[in-house]
Amino acid sequence: MISAYIDRLEGDLAVLLLGDEMKKVNFPVCFLPADVGEGDYLKLDISYDKEATEQAEQEALDLLKE
């Protein structure tokens, strides 16, 4: 789980400060919960989607065979 602080909103982007090191990243506002704003904290959970990756690899291989 990654802690993120919403530093500010700039149009369609939110400037998030991630983790203890407060690494700055731009993130689309449309993916944020509707009830959050500047000064709020978020919890981000990023996980690997093995099934989607394998499906995309298979689709690419199928295209190469055609």
Structural write-up:
The chain contains one helix and four strands; from the N terminus they run ββββα. It has 66 residues and is α+β, with helices and mostly antiparallel strands. It has one domain (2-65): OB fold (Dihydrolipoamide Acetyltransferase, E2P). Strands 3-2-1-4 form a four-stranded antiparallel beta sheet, with no helix packed on it. A hairpin with a 2-residue loop joins strand 1 (2-10) and strand 2.
Which helices and strands occur, and which strands form pairs?
Elements: E1 2-10, E2 13-18, E3 23-28, E4 41-44, H1 50-65
Antiparallel strand pairs: 1-2, 1-4, 2-3
List keywords for this structure.
OB fold (Dihydrolipoamide Acetyltransferase, E2P), four-stranded antiparallel beta sheet, 38% strand, single chain, DUF3006, DUF3006 domain-containing protein, elongated
